[in-house]
Amino acid sequence: MNIFRYFSKTPSAPAARERLQVLLAHERVSAGESDLVTKLRDEIMAVISKHMKIDQDKVSVKMERGAQVSTLAVDVEIPFDAGKKKKAA
């Protein structure tokens, strides 16, 4: 039984290292998610544009990650005359 152990200072380097690793992992996940959503938005726009005319500013793609399930929400505003895409002559 060492009574002096209770009064000694514990090194903070391991705790700081662990906090930094958690922070970096969180940043990597956040950056990757943003990049994925951007890629998905571009690909969705390309597919829809093949079939109808839409405004790129009217497309919204959001991803929400949960513990068990991730949700991808795509909101596309389609005007009434969107199906009348001009054909090349």
Automatic annotation (TrEMBL):
It comes from Neoaquamicrobium microcysteis. Transmembrane segments: none annotated. Keywords: Cell cycle, Cell division. Belongs to the MinE family. HAMAP family: MinE. One of its GO terms (biological process) is cell division. Prevents the cell division inhibition by proteins MinC and MinD at internal division sites while permitting inhibition at polar sites. This ensures cell division at the proper site by restricting the formation of a division septum at the midpoint of the long axis of the cell. Pfam families: MinE. It comes from the Bacteria. InterPro entries: MinE, MinE_sf. The keyword Cell division applies. This is Cell division topological specificity factor.
